[in-house]
Structures are given as C-alpha cells and as structure tokens.
Amino acid sequence: MIRTLWNDDHVKLRREVIAFFEEAKRPEWLLTEPESDEYREMGRAMDLQLIERGWYTLHWPAEYGGYGDFIRHTILRELEGYYRVPTYGGHGRFIVGPALLQFGSPEQQEKYLPGIADGSLVICEGLTEPDAGSDLGSLRATARRDGDSYIVDGTKLYVTYGHYANAMLLAARTDPSAHKHQGVSLFLIDMGRDGMSSSPLMCITGHQVNEVVFQNVAIPAATLLGEENRGFYHMALALNYERSGVNAPARYMAQLEDIV
Questions:
Q1: What is the pLDDT of residues 41-55, one digit of tens each?
Q2: Is the pLDDT of residue 131 over 80?
Q3: How far apart are the first and last CA of the chain?
Q4: Is 242 a catalytic residue?
Q5: Which among 35, 52, 242, 257 is annotated as catalytic?
Q6: Which among 110, 126, 20, 15 has a CA at the least distance from the CA of 72?
Q7: Of 37, 40, 228, 246, which has the fewest beta carbons less than 10 angstroms from its beta carbon?
Q8: Which of 173, 169, 176, 178 has the alpha carbon at shortest distance from 154?
Q9: Do residues 130 and 155 make contact, with C-beta atoms less than 8 angstroms apart?
Q10: DSSP, res 96
C-alpha cells in the first residue's frame, strides 16, 4: 500500500488552485517573452493575487503568512508550472526567504521577510562573474573586513532583476588564502549603495539582465548572512529550494500535451 502525506486540506487546496488558474489563464502567459517588462507586469499582478489568497508563502511559518507546510507549497508550485503562470521576483520567495529562515539573524529576518511575503521587496542574486561563471568556488569579488564594515570590490554579470530589485544576495570572497570553497561569504545588501553601478545587458531574446560593478563599496558587517567563509555551503543549501521544484517537469508535461 502506498502511504500518502496528503490530507483532505491538501486535496481541497489543489482543487481551489486548479479552479483559480483555469479562470485566470491567458494566452499572453505563453506568448510573452519571460523576463520582459510585459511578462514582469503579469507576474506582479499574479503574485498579488496569490498573496491575497494566502498562497504566496505556503511553506513559510505562520508569522510570515504561511502554513509551514511544504506539501501545500509543492501543490501550488506544480500547478504554477503546469499552467505556465508568470512570476515576479521569485528569488526572494523561493531562495532567499527560506535561506533567511534557516541561517539569517533575527534582525535580517525582521527586515526582509515581511517585504518578500507581501511582494514589496524584490531580491536579485549577485553570484555570476566574468571569469567564474556561476562557480562560486572560483569567484573573484572580494569583501574585506574593515571595522564594522566590509569593503566590496568586483563585478557581477547576468544579474536577473538587477535593474528593479530592492536588495541583492551577494557572494564575495572574504578569505583569499582559504580553499576556494571555504573562503566565500554571503551578504544581503540594499541596492544603490555608494560605489555600486549597474549597466544593462540585452539578451538575444530582447529582455534585460545586468552587470553590477562594486568599487570600494562599504557594507555593514551586519549584512553578513550566516557564517563568514561558509557562504558556498549556505548557497548550496539555499539553491536546493530552486532545483528541487516540481514546477519544471509539470511545465514540460503541459508543453508535451500542447504538442500532441
């Protein structure tokens, strides 16, 4: 006998989500370039509807608008994938929020989680670099401790949401002498600090990503997320929330059905 973790509430939620997406779906969801301004506007409108229904952060604790129930979250994510639902600023909802809940300080949780949960805060990721790609162990951006601050220098490439995000999850090397996987730290910083500059990079599909340059940028030491020099391992844990999602195979199933 197959043992299921679902209960009657899970079955009810799935029916409600299907009914909502069936009524809300539009051809534009499939015909608009992802990450374009038009797609982003659709994603923002959809996120606000999910927030209104209490579905946006189902996997988060109740004090931040959720149920603490990853099964509910998985049900929603599968159906979001199947219906090709547009999204807006999902890094905060799916990656940074869960990371904050696991190893963020109480002050960081209080500052950032409510804004992610109500859709007012969009977070980009400062991970990829010109000579390192997305290999965090090879990154060259540095964050040097200076009293109550870190001084950041370096360049981040292909920063999605970088031109309208409020904050950035930044990875930088804090111990150049350490093994490449052991000298990286994470920081959660507000955008627009002195010394930060952003330039658009236009993709062949027409949407924009960004190059963000740090030149002698001072950030408070309190922006350190988790333990110093443990950022590689923190990020590996945080990315599990993105890479273990059921939305992608559900989306591919819907595309296969369209082809048939």
A1: 999 999 999 999 999
A2: yes
A3: 33
A4: yes
A5: 242
A6: 15
A7: 37
A8: 173
A9: yes
A10: I
